[in-house]
Write a structure and sequence with these properties.
- The protein is built from four helices and three strands; from the N terminus they run αβαβαβα.
- A three-stranded parallel beta sheet has the order 1-2-3, with helices on both faces.
- The chain has a single domain, classed as Rossmann fold (3-Layer(aba) Sandwich), CATH 3.40.50.2300.
- With 101 residues, it is of the alpha/beta class.
Length: 101
């Protein structure tokens, strides 16, 4: 993503992100629905509960789970993308997330 002008940080887990000290300077989160330890949905719930609202894009290899998709979008996710996904699809979602008011 750096080649299109975005600085990207990757974390090994949701817990690593929470303890990173970068919550305040994160413009957008791309979360997998299923991750080891705390999953993406739980991380999103915790951020919302602590009033740390930031744009979230979910990705999943289990795109057929409409309940999870609808819950994520109802809770404010910008997008919910199914793997495999193309670079253009992801970039479009990131641009949408970063231009939201």
């Amino acid at each position: 993503m750096r080649s299109v002008g975005y600085a990207v940080k990757a974390y090994a887990s949701a817990e690593a992100f929470l303890s990173s000290g970068h919550l305040g300077d994160t413009g957008c989160l791309i979360l997998d629905v299923r991750m080891p330890g705390m999953d993406g949905m739980e991380l999103h719930r915790r951020l919302l509960a602590s009033h740390r609202e930031m744009p979230v894009i979910f990705i999943t290899a289990h795109g057929s789970d409409e309940w999870v998709r609808s819950k994520a979008l109802a809770n404010g996710a910008v997008d919910f993308l199914s793997k495999p996904l193309g670079e253009d699809e992801l970039l479009s979602a990131v641009r949408k997330a970063l231009t939201q008011e």
